[in-house]
Amino acid sequence: MVQLRPRASRAPASASAMVDEGQPASEEAEHGLLLGQPSSGAAAEPLEEDGDGDGDDEWDDEAPEELTFASAQAEAREEERRVRETARRDKTLLKEKRKRREELFIEQKKRKLLPDTVLEKLTAASQTDIKKSPGKLKEDNLQKKNEECEKGSESKKAKEKVQSIGQNKSYVALRLKDQDLRDSRQQAAKAFIQNSLYGPGTNRTTVNKFLSLNNKRLPVKKAAVQFLNNGWGTQKKQNAKRFKRRWMVRKMKTSKK
Amino acid sequence: MKGAVETSCALQTPSRPGRAQHPFSVLGFLTLKGDESGVSQARPLPFPRMGEFKVHRVRFFNYVPSGIRCVAYNNQSNRLAVSRTDGTVEIYNLSANYFQEKFFPGHESRTTEALCWAKGQRLFSAGLNGEIIEYDLQALNIKYSMDAFGGPIWSMAASPSGSQLLIGCEDGSVKLFQINPDKIQFERNFDRQKSRILSLSWHPSGTHIAAGSIDYISVFDVKSGSTTHKMLVDRQYMGVSKRKCIIWGVAFLSDGTVISVDSAGKVQFWDSATGTLVKTHLVANADVQSIAVSDQEDSFVVGTAEGTVFHFQLVSVTSNSSEKQWVRTKPFQHHTHDVRTVAHSPTALISGGTDTHLVIRPLMEKVEVKNYDAALRKITFPHRRLISCSKKRQLLLFQFSHHLDLWRLGSTVATGKHGDTLPLSKDADHLLHLKTKGPENIICSCVSPCGSWIAYSTASRFFLCRLNYEHDNISLHRVSKMPAFLRSAVQILFSEDSTKLFVASNQGSLHIIRLLEGSFKHLHTFQAQPGTVESMCLLAVSPDGNWLAASGTSAGVHVYNVKRLKLHCTVPAYNFPVTALAIAPKTNNLVIAHSDQQIFEYSIPDKQYTEWSRTIQKQGFHYLWLQRDTPITHISFHPKRPMHILLHDAYMFCIIDKSLPLPNDKTLLYNPLPPTNESDVIRRRTAHAFKISKRYKPLLFMDLLDERTLVAVERPLDDIIAQLPPPIKKKKFGT
Questions:
Q1: Which residues of B are less than 8 Å from A134 in CB distance?
Q2: Residue-level pLDDT at A59
Q3: Largest Cα–Cα distance of chain B, in whole Å?
Q4: Chain A contact set for B196 (CB, 8 A)
């Protein structure tokens, strides 16, 4: 059997390398296997050797380069360590980024809320002011939304507002969370009734079609109630108008000449 | 003697629904030929012609009423409470010719889902915002609103004794409230159900209730609050369906039968003692959305989504057997869209729905006297004026629920003969679109005769704005600080010279405010007696500015002296509410129109009824005049002809000529102009004081702009229907 010179290509090389130089490397391979080296290490070695011994015809003269197992192991370990290092660095980078973002958000939130002094005064004022006339209730309900918007935005004017809030006992402090819950339930209810009356599965038709049914059954058939669709082709009509104007102008110019 | 209104011309103004959005006003030429000789008088004086008018026909008022959501009938006072989808609650007095006497304005967040009367004429409503609201019928405002903490409220029922209130909520809970004299108080919760409670009904003894939900009906025992039976409803009549079956209405009869109507089109009878189905009637292909049982429990009415209303009656099986069964007797098709609510009064069936009509159908077998009162009543157009007019500048102010529109009328230079349509040389101008702040609806609005002030009011605020006209531009400036007592107004009126503002507030008081260049000054307030408010106040001021008339209380129409700021006299009370009020220019005669179509003329300086008024009351009005359906909403006068009164209702306008003889029941009321070859004698016989024209209808407003011009604001019914939500598809053979 002719021993072909091993090529430097990848996949077939590895196979042939395994076949050809399995014998000299077999001892290291055995060691490798015992030590739990990944099998690619055994395959990698012959490839490296291929590179070395590419232009060599003396592959049967010289013994292949001896790479000790320890060095290969060390190299592999280096590889791994490098990979682990990069992963760790990436993770820490991400962590730092996230931390910075959180801090930013907290700061923004702090800026949005009123300072603690104002909140204290609010709770004190609401405790003292229990009695409210029914007539004012309606006003309060109406002004609820205004109050919420105001509270959310101003923090600089808080100081001036503090005194006025304490004395003027005609507003209501609301938790926005409750309002959201109530609104969402109302939305759900409205969606339910809309769906059950006009949703899919209901047999609804347009008012135009409904009113035109009679026209269809007359002895002299008439057109539908809303026969013209004025919304059709608005862009086309606009373009046509513009073109007409330009054409007229051009016509005037040429006729003048 | 030619005393007639020409209606035989060929004026055809095509109603083009597609162009309803574009403003156009067509000037029609209407000739009212007057009498040539005064036959009724001894002296042969030449009588002035009534003259020819140019008529501005306005169709660009895009008025769309909101659909009716709930109806509640009160037997003791024969009143009907109607709530609409925008939150407005209206009270109709069924014995006063079905006139809308009071209303509570709507609110954007209030979508009422249930309305009921309780003991002592108290009105409650509940809606999707989760609150129970009680209405104060005397002060015309909301007494209080209480949050039920159950989420959106879908149904509410008052106990047969009237002292307890039951509500069904979104989260499946049924809550019981105790009605105290001043407020309602939460008592307890019943067993919580899985899905939302959409309908409730009390057993007449008050021991059990039936609650309809999605796919099932539960029967509760009131004492313990627990369910005794749970009846599962088929999704489709003898079939399978993916869509859930929604029980839109339940009714509990005293023999223990529960009647349910659902979205599959079935009316089912259940036995509540055993929890089983007794009978099923399939009445429609679409939802059956409402049910109402009469007090005697021998008939009930259901309304479907196709617009049909079915009447079921308890009839005996054979003519002399005692066994009875429920039979579907009469179908009524008066609606085009969903009938979302029905009510059963002792003599009539009442229905209302998405097509905004309120239909009252008296049942022939229950009505005692078979006269015109037993005819079908369909209430479509508002019973109050939504339009005000500034004559000097030819402006019209349209009131919508959340904004106001100010238009200037177009003009023409052409002339023509009777019946012509004149082309416009200048189109009508949309000057101003004024949106109100806040979620509340506008109650009333007015523009001053000179056109420089606009005032309008919601339930909690009053707005006064000043308009400046420079050349063709208009600028608006709001007067910012309104006084504290001027909160909400029921009626607003400016004096003829635009220097004074008269405001009737909902507490019954009347304020007079003097308007200055950029501000105002409060002059006086007239307080009303508490507890006497009968209907919404209407105001009228005399053109010379001396007298102010105010109606709405049970004492009658009060006339105040504006210069001396005190009460001048009171017109004696009449048992029907006032629908329109006006004071004539020179004679200062107060003309009052009531809801039973009676018209009175009261002389303010003399403090007594005028001669003409006594004559017509003695003779009585023509029977066709008294049989008109719609109330008179506006009265005005001709500046140069003191004998003429111009008034209109939704389907006709009329000029009353006080100098002509009154018609008796035998004469023709709507007499067209007889052909010219008729002899004079016949013409003389048919002429009378009421010159009626039905050319412009449906009329929302009609007024005299100047001596030769009229303005008529029409609202064709097709234009309203074109903007309603989609109806159920109907399959007709051949289409």
A1: 143-144
A2: 54
A3: 88
A4: 189, 192
